């Protein structure tokens, strides 16, 4: 028995106190409506309407049921609305990963965008390398992540729109090569290359070395660095360069960024989520991430603090990402 359907019929008849008018309101014929009420009465074991006279009246049981039925049907509507929002990704918990080097201005824009598009979504955000994200996505411990390509297709992932960010050479501002407006990769011969450990993003690591060698730069040594401050320290010690997006150089005024002639390298980033049993909000997260990453210049000025508290816990591991600081601001 479809109790809720019969209760909806009962409520309309109870409001109209006329089976013919109630049938018109419900858009159905009167005989099926009468049968529906009779079945409800048999199910409950009481008479809900007094039909002894020409005017239909509610019995005592009918009057009591009417109040309860209103609450029950309102609860059903709330439940359906809640489930629909979960299905659309507007409610629930979304476990997301972002790379450790994500600039604060990008992270802020991503959080603000999610708050605007899905204010009821509880975002559980973690700082993870691409390799860690791929593993956690496969294990079902992460719903969506921002990965540096290339990532193997056989990982069972679906990808959102990709954004290509040009990379250039990071080197000490006092280095002779920093005088050039652009740098050939071949001009870096004999220097060490500082980059993230291969285990953090194996596909990108292999691609970077292959392109460098193809353009005449075979690093004397490849030195790993996970933390930006450690990367800057190695660069300032001399004898080494790094190949990163320009935003990385904005954190340290003593480091210069120079584009590579011919732009043979770009850092491609996109959201990824499991191909099967995907979280409903994952595609929305992927689209928003592409929009945020596609903004080449961050907005000027200090970040604004929203008046309302964010509807999620933001969880970070040790070594939180710092705010970008333009060179001119640091020099003041």
Descriptive account of the structure:
This protein has 332 residues and is α/β, with parallel strands linked by helices. It folds into three domains: 3-87, Arc Repressor Mutant, subunit A, CATH 1.10.10.10; 92-163 and 271-331, Periplasmic binding protein-like II (D-Maltodextrin-Binding Protein, domain 2, 3-Layer(aba) Sandwich); 164-266, D-Maltodextrin-Binding Protein, domain 2. 39% of the residues lie in helices and 19% in strands. It has eleven helices and twelve strands. It has helices at 3-16, 19-26, 30-44, 60-87, 104-117, 130-138, 202-214, 228-236, 246-249, 282-293, 327-331, and strands at 49-50, 57-58, 92-98, 121-127, 144-148, 157-159, 163-172, 192-195, 222-224, 240-245, 255-259, 266-274. The strands form two sheets. Strands 3, 4, 5, 6, 7, 8, 9, 10, 11 and 12 form a ten-stranded mixed sheet that branches. A two-stranded antiparallel ribbon has the order 1-2. Strand 8 (192-195), helix 7 and strand 9 (222-224) form a beta-alpha-beta unit. Helix 1 packs across helix 3 (30-44), helix 1 packs across helix 4 (60-87) and helix 5 (104-117) packs across helix 10. The longest helix has 28 residues, at 60-87. The radius of gyration is 31 Å and the shape is rod-shaped. The termini are far apart. Mean pLDDT is 83; it is low at 296-332.
